[in-house]
Amino acid sequence: MNVEELESIVRDELRRDAxxxxxxxxxxxxxxxxxxxxxxxxxxxRRWAVPLLVAAAVVALAIAATLLLPRALxxxxxxxxxxxxxxxxPAAPYPVGLTCGHGQQPVSGVGARFxxxxxxxxxxxxxxxxGTDGSRTGSVLEWFRTAGGQLVYQAPPLILALQNQYVMSxxxxxxxxxxxxxxxxxxxxxxPGGVVVETRLSVDADGVAAANGVAVAQPCLATDLTVGVAxxxxxxxxxxxxxxxxxxxxxxxxxxxxxxxxxxxxxxxxESVLRGPIGGLADEPSAPPLLLQPGQTxxxxxxxxxxxxxxxxxxxxxxxxxxRLGALHTSACIGSVVGYPLVRxxxxxxxxxxxxxxASATGSCLDSRDLSFGFSQSQSGNRGSxxxxxxxxxxESCTITGYPDVRVTDDHMNLQRFPFPAQTLxxxxxxxxxxxxxxxxxxxxxxxxxxxxWSENPADGHCDSGGDLWLTLGTPRAGDGPLPSRVxxxxxxxxVAGSTGSG
Amino acid sequence: MxxxxxxxxxxxxxxxxxxxxxxxxxxxxxEAEELVQxxxxxxxxxxxxxxxxxxxxAYVRRSLTNNFLNGRxxxxxxxxxxxxxxxxxxxxxxxxxxxDRELVRRLLNDLPARQRxxxxxxxxxxxxxxxxxxxxxxxxxxxxxxxxxxxxxxxAETERQATSQPRQTNGNRR
Lengths: 503, 174
Prior knowledge:
The structure holds two protein chains of two kinds. Chain A is mostly beta strands. Chain A has helices at residues 3-18, 25-35, 49-72, and strands spanning 104-116, 121-131, 140-147, 150-159, 165-183, 195-204, 207-210, 214-219, 225-232, 238-245, 251-253, 258-261, 269-272, 275-276, 279-280, 290-292, 297-318, 324-339, 343-344, 371-380, 383-392, 398-400, 405-409, 415-417, 422-423, 426-427, 430-431, 440-442, 448-455, 463-465, 468-472, 477-482, 486-492, 496-497. Chain B is mainly alpha-helical. In chain B, helix 1 (4-26) packs antiparallel against helix 2 and helix 7 crosses helix 8.
């Protein structure tokens, strides 16, 4: 065999062998799922370098002017002034008795208007120093009276800076204020810190008197909480740890949970952030303590640096006060964990609360993980449809009734609901033949399916951008049903028995 | 071509061809999927850099090959150890004489990662020496040398097997 023959054989064999490569269908879905919620770095080309430098200089000047000019003019404002809690409350003045350390900045927290014991109006504001990493000092509570339309500082402050005391709320009362504060100090005898204390302050012409504080809530212990990990979708698809207070009394949580690698097969690093592409705080420089009433939920988004190997990731979570929440099990494609702070709600985002699904399916299949999902498409003229099929993976059966909750990926690979999906029993391409939603049992060999149909003709109804069609069924979800770039008059038909979407 | 939409479009358009290249490099369907997925996910955050390349697909291919070669270096730390090597994707030889083609395929699978990568880039991707050199990170002369040695090795091995196998077959008949 000469070299030319050998080269020819090598070329042929490589090409023949390449035909055995996987199709890439699953790969595409896995890649897109792995990068969902991961930010892209904007990199400008060299030709933009000079304009960008000029723009940066302008921005820097603007920032400097914003920070320095008010001081020069005598209008002192905290570096992070917050909107007034109530419309009638004047903006918080610059704190008088607060000195922040290097790398910290003064922050105004909550505020309140109150009427003191002699009938004079006062204004109280909570201040603290925050570091860039979300750390904070205890609160200082300063108060002011109005004179000539200006707020005039009153000494001494209502509360001096106390380490680990974070004011949560201020309420004006008869003759003073009710202050609710979270005490992050470690508890006695190894108990976790995090007691919520209410203190009544009386203010009169002689000064300020504080009654003994009353503990209104204890820190949430692991036994008080139902700990879950859920797939959520706002502002981008991600995983969130959910803590629900199932005890009969209020309890408090605060800060960024620490996620610790519990199994060998997982990430090795973790970091905490205040906010990011998948959630976190709106604009506060430090996480607020949360008082969870019975039944209320707090959540923390869990992000990460994606890697290709998806695995059952063993993580255990620990709250900042040392309360261990135990092991969390989630399937993830991340190489290091990014922990977000606890916020109210289900998805770990203060700014993008999870939207409730429209009327969709009910039944035990919503909680089943032993299901496989299939998508098949058909086209008839300018109408198209996708049949979404669910099949039992194992030997167990489950029930389902109602409409599939379908979503579509937007330009940023976030899952969106169709703004105007019509849930109809049937349409031109199929659906339910009767008028009553069937109670279905999904068992081995007995799949259920729902039909999503659309038109490509704008005259037929409202048009939405297409993308990849995803099915949400309780916690699990599936995808890889590509739609045309534009779909109009989308209709979703209920689950029926079989795999055709009609019957 | 810098945003998530462009990334999605790239994945849709090129995942098949990338998978083929990855499969030829790894010789394993699952490893190939992992390799492509890992490459794309790693590139995603800096997709603007990929998009700015003259040929984005070439950029991704280069990254894929580098990932493959780097991964091979890390394998000893990451992978499970087998008492016996896992089976390769060729058909079993039951003692009959292998055709030259089968033999070449088998030998290709057994080449060292770097040598195999160079042969794949040359004979499957049809890349020039300079392009291969920039992907592998070596000089042009080194590429020529690797290809030449790889082919020599294949030819020598083919000839060795061709002369030894009939004897084995006869031996079995005895």
